[in-house]
Amino acid sequence: DHGLSEADPEVRAIINKEKERQFKSLELIASENFTSRAVMEAVGSCLTNKYSEGLPGKRYYGGNEYIDELEILCQKRALAAFHLDENKWGVNVQPLSGSPANFEVYTAILNPHDRIMGLDLPHGGHLSHGFMTPKRRVSGTSIYFESMPYRLDESIGLVDYDMLEKTATLFRPKLIICGASAYPRDFDYPRMRKIADAVGAFLMMDMAHISGLVAASVVADPFEYCDIVTTTTHKSLRGPRGGMIFFKKDPVLGVDLESAINNAVFPGLQGGPHNHTIGGLAVCLQHAQSPEFKAYQNQVVSNCRALARRLVELGYTLVSGGSDNHLVLVDLRPLGIDGARVEKILDMASITLNKNSVPGDKSALVPGGIRIGSPAMTTRGFTEKEFTAIADFIHEGVQITIEAKGLASGSKVQEFLKFVSSPDFLLTDKVSN
Ligand code: PLP
């Protein structure tokens, strides 16, 4: 048996290049992070070889003595990391990632064509919360369920709770979803709970982006108000790529969430759990209970505030005016440029972030904003000072983009810059997460 370099130098070389890219760039994608060597070791271990359909003690395969031990440990650590009472909350650690976790919840508590309300994607929500355009039901969630998104009050960049309340009263959803991919503020959980109760809906929080901040108690606690909480494990939580679903143990609206959710995960939508991921997750969740983790999450928020402060000083418009969490959303439209071009220009300078739609955007393909996150570079040891410098670097990139847009033809450089400002340049478009 050979190591990777010997067995497959081609893949090894690609991994080496990616490693170098990660090492050299300023990683500012709000949903990314650098997980620890210990987590990577577990993920790269023999745990990947084992089939273990079912739950601990109730498997469809033999040889699961140690896998059971691992999954029980992971569940215990998950509940402890989020300060949950084992008698009141349960958790399923098998979801393969965030989108499957969400769909598993919908499968558990909804019937096909039941009504749901989540934050609209152009206003910061996630695809899996029911995104659709006027022409197309884009996400599976909107294909199998009837989705009526709620939105931000565009004048202040905050969730329009009054409108949500009015719409929910008419639409009468069975599920209301809190949580977002590009929202720089906390959700008002007490208000969302009140709205859900008034219409008899389940309340779910998808804390994928902020789960590390929740574990460290540096943002509001969704568990106090929600019936179900889903998350990815690889963003601010800094674990391996995966997902988790937390559920109340007492029945909610007559539904036994524990059995409904466990059954939706397996056999409903998944087969064998990814035990290597569960191993890595257990490692991550142990670390998430440490004082260092809390200090890290405090630094994530503090760095993000420093970044926001400097951007405002430089004259930028931030959606909602600032940030309470790990990300800022910059509205570039007042400068006459879009997020797609700025993303490309910064990429060339090894500054990695993503274009993002901002409230009021006309085009999702060429959105008017950029999203900047602090978790990854905080893991790399950056503090407020470096994040202030990052704001200055981004400012330079924006200036170059503005100049590029104004140039006509001429020298090679000018031709390049003209290309950068042409629609062809945007062909490599991708949906941000
Ligand atoms: N939920 C939210 C709020 C997200 O931001 C994301 C991804 O970025 C997901 C779910 C989906 O996670 P995954 O990409 O692991 O399916």
TrEMBL record:
Reaction equation(s) it catalyzes: (6R)-5,10-methylene-5,6,7,8-tetrahydrofolate + glycine + H2O = (6S)-5,6,7,8-tetrahydrofolate + L-serine
What cofactor(s) does the depicted protein rely on? pyridoxal 5'-phosphate
An example GO BP is:
tetrahydrofolate interconversion
Alphabetically ordered keywords of this record: One-carbon metabolism, Pyridoxal phosphate, Transferase
Look at the named UniProt entry and state the broad enzyme category this protein falls under: transferase
**Which EC number applies?**
2.1.2.1
Where are residues bearing N6-(pyridoxal phosphate)lysine located in the sequence? Answer: 235
A GO term, aspect molecular function = pyridoxal phosphate binding
Locate the coiled-coil region(s) and give their ranges: none
Cellular component (GO) terms are:
mitochondrion
Q: Which family does it belong to?
A: Belongs to the SHMT family.
Q: What name is this protein filed under?
A: Serine hydroxymethyltransferase
Q: Which organism is it from?
A: Gossypium barbadense (Sea Island cotton)
